[in-house]
Amino acid sequence: MLSPLEVVQRQFDAYNRRNLDDFLANFHEDVKVFRPPSPDPAIVGKCQLADFYASERFNRPALKAELISRTVLGNKVFDHERIWGVRETAFEMMAVFEVQDGAIRTIWGFSAE
């Protein structure tokens, strides 16, 4: 079984290749994506995740994520990233990935905007 770090790195690499199948292979069927401060998940389940990334991310030719820093704490991986191709200018975010049984189960995405 892959470590949390390896799982997150695989999804990061697939994201930058805009490869939806390879990307989704790293997520649990019941994945939840939160965008604080909302307490409710923005995305629930791998099907919703696939729909969102197919229609809102991987269709953008300039999409790219740069890893600024990464910290691993047990089964959680904290990525400080700079994202291009979604907005007019690049923006920074902190993505927190919780990995269980070799798959990403929960993501919290924090951005300044």
Structure description:
The longest helix has 14 residues, at 4-17. Strand 5 (91-100) and strand 6 form a beta hairpin. The protein has 113 residues and is α+β, with helices and mostly antiparallel strands. The mean pLDDT is 97. It has one domain (4-111): Nuclear Transport Factor 2, Chain: A. It has a 6-stranded mixed beta sheet with strand order 2-1-6-5-4-3. The chain has helices at 4-17, 20-24, 46-56, and strands at 27-34, 41-44, 64-73, 76-84, 91-100, 103-111. This is Nuclear transport factor 2 family protein. Residues 8-105 form the SnoaL-like domain. It comes from Pendulispora rubella.
Kindly summarize this structure in a few lines.
By secondary structure, this protein is of the alpha+beta class. It has helices at 4-17, 20-24, 46-56; strands at residues 27-34, 41-44, 64-73, 76-84, 91-100, 103-111. The model has no long low-confidence stretch (mean pLDDT 97).
Total domain modules: 1
Largest sheet, if any? 6 strands, mixed
CATH level 3 topology = Nuclear Transport Factor 2, Chain: A
CATH class, please? Alpha Beta
Cα-atom radius of gyration: 13 Å
Mean pLDDT, rounded to whole units? 97
Adjacency order of strands in the biggest sheet: 2-1-6-5-4-3
Give, in order, the helices and strands: HHEEHEEEE
Number of separate helices: 3
* Terminus-to-terminus distance: 36 Å
Low-confidence runs (pLDDT<50, min 5 residues)?
Answer: none
Tell me the strand percentage band.
Answer: 35-45%
Helix content: 25-40%
- Level-2 CATH architecture: Roll
The class by helix and strand makeup works out as alpha+beta
Q: Which outline best applies?
A: globular
Number-wise, the strands total: 6
